[in-house]
Amino acid sequence: MSVEQAAVTPGSTADPPADAGADWYASGPPRQISLRTSLIMLVLACVLPGIALCSYLLYANYQLEKEKMAQQTELLASQILVELDRELAVIESGLHVLATSELLQNGDLQRFHQIARAALQSQTIYNYVLTDRDGRQVVNTLRPFGKPLPQSGNPPLLAEVFATGRTVLTGLFKGPVTGEPIIAMGVPVHGRNGEVIYSLNVGMLPTQLNELLQRQSLQHGWLVAIVDSSGTIIGRSRDAERFVGQKAVAELRARLQTSHRGSLSTLTKEGVPVSTAYARSDLWNWSVVTGAPKSLIEREMFRMFAGLGAAALLLIVVGSWLALCITQRVVSSVHYLNDAALALRNGKPLTLPRVQLHEAEAVGHAIVQASHLMAKVHHRAYHDPLTELGNRALFYELVQHQLAIAERENRQLSILAIDLDNFKVVNDEEGHAAGDQLLAAVARRLEATIRAADAAARMGGDEFSILLVDAGEESATETAHRLVAELGKPYPGIQTRVSASIGIAVYPQAGADLAELLENADRALYAAKRGGRNTCRLAGCAKTSEV
Q1: DSSP code per residue over 116-175
Q2: Which CATH architecture best describes the domain 392-546?
Q3: pTM
């Protein structure tokens, strides 16, 4: 109903509706309505839709907050799981290095015992144990060499090291020496004929996992736990001494058996209702579980929605007919800012659409600028500004990632260490500008020569490195020869004849980890330098050989 229809001036009459019929005329002039009543009706006409709209917005915001909370708990579980996988991978890598010791091949267990005990000083692990095929301990760093050791008590799962030749990670069990709860990781020790002769195991206490959880920035009242493959709690951010070693709640154990990631509503071991999220490791079959108390969530939501509701009601009463317009402006702006914030979090490019609120537009511009700045900072942190190739940090991360894949899937990879010949002559005789021009040209030739799956990086000065994914000796050598030929061609604007020397290190023949591969690649590079330059050399397992 409009104001013109609702309010009639005293002494005037309103036109009858077309379909009113004879009753309209029989009743006389229409009943006059006061301005107060008209305003009340107008306000009601504005308030009721406003209340309905605000109710919808509050409900939609409530659902968004619930989804946001679920996303936060799932993201926290995934982040902690990544950190846990990284620490376990470091321990596994160290075990593999120790398992290749010549002392084990030669049977010098006493000397190996000394080295293993010395290695404990720089690590966070508890002890090293060497067991034979019958499960008997032959070395345990918790006891002096030669002292009697337990003949049984190791978890049966460690026997799979001999059966499969792969790394095994146990759940929580009672250590046969100390009687304390412990977790073990075992890797095979291969003999000269390739057979598994020992299992080299490392012991980890649950306190190490608890310390990992204590380092996390958790909101007040939140709980994080680590659960092994059997559903046993092996680490907990709160009351660890009380609950470590116990089974997780039944509902959570059932979900962990059926899916790798998800969320559910359940109770903690203390009986507190929580919104729970979990993420299970594909490598170790351990799970990280996070729980946010529902009471804290509901209290925070109630406080937030009570304020929003009061503000919305005040705006409706005071603003009346402006309420709908303002609400639409706010909603569109909030939706944009939410979308922009999510895109910023996911690293997607942002564009600024037209919004109706000046403040929202300013915030939007700030978010867009922040996204551009983050992209620039990220690029600068991992790329060389002169050549636009990846830098040392990015190269190390790529190699570590590919090493983990190669080890898990029994693949090969190769690293090429490249050094330019006569680069100093270019700098000294033609100037640093010519040197910079040369480095940029070398980078483009490297990118044009290698595959898209490979990675080139500038390590500093005139030193470059290349990661060849899934490449053995033959493929790596062929690529190195092509690079030598390509980099030895003349460079426009450069008078000095420039060539390249290349060292090749192939995983796993030339090294089992990043440091060893880089060292052997450098040795092969120096051999190429000594051999006359403009050539490449292949690093072997024991010594550097000429290609």
Answers
A1: HHHHGGGSS--EEEEE-TTS-EEEETTS-TTS---SS-S-GGGGHHHHH-S-EE---EE-
A2: 2-Layer Sandwich (3.30)
A3: 0.47
